[in-house]
Structures are given as C-alpha cells and as structure tokens.
Amino acid sequence: MDFHVTLQGRRDLSGQIYRELRAAILDGRLRRGERLPPTRELALRLDVSRNTVSVAYEWLTAEGLLEGRTRAGSFVQGEASPRRGRTGVASGVRLRARAFWSALPDEPTPRAPAAYDFRVGTPDASHFPFETWRRLVARQLRAAALPAGYAEAAGHAGLREAVARHVGVARGVRAEADDVLITHGAQQALDLAGRVLIEPGDCVAVEDPGYPPARLLFQSLGARVVPVPVDAEGLDVGALPDAARLVYVTPSHQFPLGMPMSPARRSALLDWAKQRDAVILEDDYDSEFRFGGRPLETLHGLDRSGRVLYVGSFSKVMLPELRLGFLIAPPSLQRELRWAKRVMDWHSQLPAQAALARFIDGGMLARHVRKMRREYEERHERVLEGLTRHCGDWLQPLPSMAGLHLSATFHRGGLKLEREAVARAQAADVGLVTLSRYCAGPRAKAGLVIGYGAMPTSRIAEGLRRLGSCLATASGS
Asked: Boundaries of each HTH gntR-type domain copy (predicted)?
C-alpha cells in the first residue's frame, strides 16, 4: 500500500517516519493485515536512506504494531485505538454554509427495514434479471467498448435513441434522440432544469402534498417555492400564483395521493403556462405501472408551444442504485441544459448507459415491466383488501390505479392519530410513512402512504392486520 509520509527538515528522520506510521495504525487509517511498502521502495519515495526506514519499522515491530514476514514484507499487526472524536482535523475556524443548508434537519440514521415494510418508492429487486444485466455491463467494460476520454454531456447516443423510442411507444411522447439528456436519476433532471431556468427569487409552484426532494431542490437554488393544493382532479390550476416561472407536476400518478390529472386540468395548465410565459416540469412518476383505466396523454404530448420538459427515470422499473434517468427538452433549451450537465459532472457513466440501451433495444425492459406490472397489481389489490378488512374503521383509501403505493386518509383523529399509529406500528415491526410529511402548506393532510414495492405479497395481509391492531389501540388511547 502507498502511504503518505511528511518529513520536516533532515533531523530525526527515522523518528518522524515512526510517529506518522504509528499514528496511522492507532487511528485506523492503516488496518490490521495491510502490507506496508518495502523499506527500499519507501526510502526512494522519501529520498532517505534505506536504513532510516528500516529503523522506523524496527521500532514499530518492537511495539507489536508491525510484523515482519520472511520474503513477504512488513504487515500491520496493531489495532486502532478507540477514538473520542475526530483527530487531525483543523478546528480553529467554523466554516459557515448558506442559511438554507444549515436550517435543514440532520439526515435520519439508516435503520434496518421493518419485517412488514411499507416503505414508499422502493421496487422489488428480487425479480430483477441480474444475470442478464451483469452480462450486458461486462460486455461494455471491455477496453474496445470504452471511449478514449470523456464523452458527450447529453449521454450515450444509443441510449438516447433507445429512450426516445421507448417513451414514444410506451407513453406517446414525441421525441428525437437529440431531445434526450441522460441524467443521474430524476432528481438530477430536476436540478438541471432548475439551474437553467430559475433565477434567485423566482417563483416556483409545486403540488401540495407533493414530492419533498423537488421542493427542497428548488429552494436550494434560491427560488421562492409556493405549494399549490391538489384535489381529486390533480393540481388546482386556479390556485397557481401568477408570478410562477416554473410549475412542477406529477400528472400521470400524483405523488403521493395517486390520482391522475384530469384532461380538463391538463388543458387548463397548458393554457395557463402559455399565457404567462411559464415552463411546466412534468415528472411522469410511476406511469409504467398502470393497472386499469384509460391511460391519459402526457402533458408533453399535448404541448404545442414547447413549454413542457419531460422527466423520466429507471429507478422504479429497474433499480434505484443504477441512478439513470432522462430529461426531454425542447430545442430552445437543449444547448443550455447540456452545458449545465457538463458543468455539473460532465456526463453519466457510459458502461451502464450502453448496457441499458441494449436492455431496451433487446426488449428486455418491456418484458421486465410487464412482469412487474402483474406483480404490483396483485400487491395493490391485496393492500386495498387488507385496508378494508383490517383498517376500514379508521382509513379511507384514495383512488389509485398505478404505481408502487397508495394513500389513505383518516376518517377522524387527524394528525394526533397519525403520530400515535406510526409510533405503535414501529413497535410492532411495521414500517409506515405518514401522509403529512409530504405536505408543505399550513393545512397538512393526515393519513398514511402504503408502499408495496418492497413488501412481498405473502406478508401484506399480516402487516395490515398488525396495522389495524395499532390503529385500534391508538384511537382508544
């Protein structure tokens, strides 16, 4: 292992090397079993004699921190000491982040999933064709398949063509390969659009309840974010602020409530944007998993004035860990969006992009989506059945015919019952998400968002039976 050693002057060189290596072993930077550089090699790198390094190694060996093995080298033998805090970090000056970031709460500590895990937004990885994907990626990791140097910011040409065909067939989106920009998931697509379109102080309208990461992202860019209420037809266009420069919507499967935006509202939103010279950012969330009803045309497909940017992702239909998504934009913004992508991270990783292009072109994505649609439809029906049987006295499921979750509101009890139910469910090893966490306005909706992507079908009934018991106890307390 290469190891950085800093020497000051020409005095006590063995001692300086000894102290730096000793400190690295005791604070865990060098771990037990790791091999140190040979004395000759380290001496050449430090421009000292080999004997100087040998003396330092001998002192460490005498302390039991190193072990010399014949014809093998010197290996770390000691263990790191328990640390009481951060060491070796400058602490004299407290650097200040922007007020927006300092005001955010600490990130939640990751916890093991509950036995009955109704998390939201997590697909079932157990059905993913890992062997097929592994072969596709391995083929792209060969030297002949990799480009020499950096690639185009817009993404792999084959994947952009495949995405344009895929959304054209699956969603009726009219797009060419040049209209597609490959991103690290939907979140980066939103970020790129915001960077290009939003000036500090601009008004951005978002759904309420809605997707918190989008809201926080626009706020981080200096926008004045205004939550707009959602009803049974989707976003209330009449409540949009006149000053809004950008409107973020999930019209195919509103997140988190689940209803699609009605045709009348879609037309009204497009007219509103045209009259006010605004931009619509359409997140086609969970549209691949529709279980019934006539699919509605996307806002992008209805748009005739080039005001809609269309965002998609492969996180739900494949795996969130792949971090692959896309942004489809009108020609008037493509140059600026590509520059924003280049400035942000140059381009997304190419082997995965090329593999995904083959996955789509070979029909494997379509087959996987069909398979998972059937699986999730059964889970959706099981959740509705279980909510009615075990939780009907307290919860009213909201109409939803797509996606990996459904929402339910409380008949009574409001936010107090919501808090009590989630606390008791956690104790019963049932993982839940509250509806109120997605609300930004002053009147939060009380309810639960029941995800079934990560929940095996066989465990849904028992999980909802436990939830019903928790609700019964919480409502009586």
From this structure: 11-79
